[in-house]
Amino acid sequence: MDKPSFTTPDLDAFCLLDTHSLTVTGQAITVDHAILECRTTTDDRDSWCQGCGAEGIPRGTAVRRLVHVPLGWRPTILHVRVRRYRCPTCERVWREDLTAVAAPRAKLSRPAVLWALKCLVIDRMSISRIAAGLGASWHTVNSAILATGQQLLLDVPGRFDGVRILGVDEHVWRHTPFGSKYVTVIIDLTPIRDRTGPSRLLDIVEGRSKKAFKTWLAAQSQAFRHGIEDIAMDGFAGYKSAAAEELPDAVPVMDPFHVVALAGGAVERCRQRIQQETLGHRGRSGDPLYGVRRVLLTGANLLTQKQVDRLDAVLAAEEHTQVDVTWWVYQRVVGAYRDPDRVRGRARMQAVITSLAVGVPAAVDKKAKRAEQPTNNGTKES
After folding, report:
1. Residue 241 burial (CB < 10 Å; 0-12/13-18/19+)?
2. What is this structure's pTM?
């Protein structure tokens, strides 16, 4: 490691003020805060009236208070002394421009807003914890993060460039003061297909309806819509209908999570139906099928020998044949997704679909009609 080159201590650089044309002129340390008194160092003074163009007359200074980056885990406040001017012609009064330090009427300095945004996105800290670290109110910090996040993360030109594989799904926030809130989450799955990195969040739209997704698609550029090749989604008809209307050339596919969930749901429904037909009641303690309800949804390679013997004994019964067949299909769907070789996994999934399309018992024939292929194995809907 190279030996560092030491220089004279610079408080402005340490406090992240040197790049904002500020210099520290004093400090006050209290039990709860650290207060830094600052002044501007720019030679380009805003002494000219923007109304009539006349040179303003200095009218003293005023102090603007800004929440700054915590120093030593102590909330820090800047007292920036700015010059005041009055126009002798139109009598307009104004202050020195501080947009390089903070946004107009903002209560947080720009370094403080970036610090809060990084804490939220990278460190996954809550707004309450960030606000406590800054010594500001929750609403002040939340509003600043939303505005800066919109500017830096959402309004970036070219954010949608190169998107070919689109993913859409719903998400719900429960136990909120306003009840359950549903949103539509839209992500870029192109890096997953190209094996260049993780998926990328594109947007979150309020609501979980066809209208919400269709409106978002319609708002995108024509080039973006023409570049979409596949759309991964769940079985919700609203999303599929919106995609068909706005992206007619894109191929809708079902993502692996929902394919496995669909197959697991079929196992559960089959088990419940056979339970009712054979015993005349819902599952109870001691019933064979009810006793293996969790084992049926566990991957075969994760079962213990005791669980395997127990499952074999239950599925060997003739009246449980339909459950056995449905479980067989479910395990092969899971196995195809878990295959580390994508080409081989795609072939295994195609074999499952072929087996469902030909020669299945009538009771499980509906399963064949609902079988779909995943996005990450490069297969399409059947």
Report:
1. middle
2. 0.60
